[in-house]
Amino acid sequence: MRNPGKYLEVFHLSKAFPKAGGGENLVVKEFDLNMREGEFVSLIGHSGCGKSTVLSIIAGLTIKTAGSMILADKEVHGAGPDRGVVFQAPSLLPWMTALDNVMLGVDQVFPTASGADRRHVAEHYLELVGLGSAMHKMPAELSQGMRQRVGIARAFALSPKMLLLDEPFGMLDSLTRMELQEVLLQVWRERKITALMVTHDVDEALFLSDRVVMMTSGPEAHVGDILHVPFARPRDRQGVLNHPEYYNLREHLIDFLEHHDTRKKQVKTTPSAPDAVPFNTGVVALA
Fold first, then answer.
1. In what order do the strands lie in the sheet with 223-228?
2. What superfamily would CATH give domain 8-82+160-285?
3. Confidence at residue 259, expressed as pLDDT on a 0 to 100 scale
4. CB 251 within 8 A of CB 168
5. What does the DSSP assignment read for the chain?
6. pLDDT given at position 5
């Protein structure tokens, strides 16, 4: 029987890149992480510390230098449909509608299902992310936020064992970002797919996650601390903000990031616009 505390097991994951003048630069060193099935974990750290590299290795898109990974009792080698990936930019095929972009993956993953069943799956997730009336539009007709909704629907429609998100809202304005955080939680609640997300946003990590994994700054970055997030699910922003531990947890994350900033730069707090939603006040942006 599978250990429920070890749905994803990452052992001593390391990645080195060759230097221009010879030798290697060890970006990530002995990164270890266990995740429970259905858990939502955020990976946070300074730019360049190796967060996206770790995510890319788990996705099978980057070759590891050392270490191993086990997902649902099977060792992971290379990319596969068991891991759905949502990138910062959704990279939709411009000559296909939103529905066709989602159908492309569904057709590949479920080739024995009927055409009607495959279409139903694609339509269901597009409706779930709020694109029921726009699924027949081309990517050029969609806003950046709408295109990212297609990317989220595409990943969930594959019914992966794990969802990997690489700063999925990083290119969006603050209001659209918060809106899509809600969309992501709504879709995630339906399936409870095990999810690992890279983010620079402390508030986003606290709002979405069961745990926040903090990486030390590179080179040789590794897991420096893990924060358990006590907020009950389902969540709403106001309830998270009003939780007596919210600002203590937020301060803990910021203190860690400041302490591990080897570049001697301070974590900056970006002031909100006058008409911004209160939850976005003091969003932490990592230099």
1. 83-86, 162-166, 194-199, 40-44, 211-215, 223-228
2. P-loop containing nucleotide triphosphate hydrolases (3.40.50.300)
3. 82
4. no
5. ---TT-SEEEEEEEEEEE-TTSSEEEEEEEEEEEE-TT-EEEEE--TTSSHHHHHHHHHTSS--SEEEEEETTEE--S--TTEEEE-SS----TTS-HHHHHHHHHHHH-TTS-HHHHHHHHHHHHHHTT-TTTTTS-GGGS-HHHHHHHHHHHHHHT--SEEEEESTTTTS-HHHHHHHHHHHHHHHHHH--EEEEEES-HHHHHHH-SEEEEEPPSSSB-EEEEEE----SS--HHHHHHSTTHHHHHHHHHHHHHHT-TT--PPEEEPPPTTS-GGGTTEEE--
6. 64
For the chain (287 residues), the mean pLDDT of every run of 10, in chain order, is 74 92 88 96 90 94 94 90 90 95 94 93 95 95 95 94 93 90 92 93 95 90 94 92 94 89 49 39 38
Question: Tokens 């970055």, residue?
Answer: 221
| Every domain of the chain and the residues it spans | 8-82+160-285
pLDDT value for 91 = 87
C-alpha 157/C-alpha 52 separation (Å) is 23
pLDDT on residue 165 = 96
- Give dist(CA 97, CA 31) in Å, integer: 40
Q: Dig out the tokens for 45 from the structure.
A: 């750290």
Which pLDDT value is given to residue 262?
58
Q: pLDDT tens digits, residue range 88-145?
A: 888 899 999 999 999 999 999 999 999 999 999 999 999 999 999 999 999 999 999 9
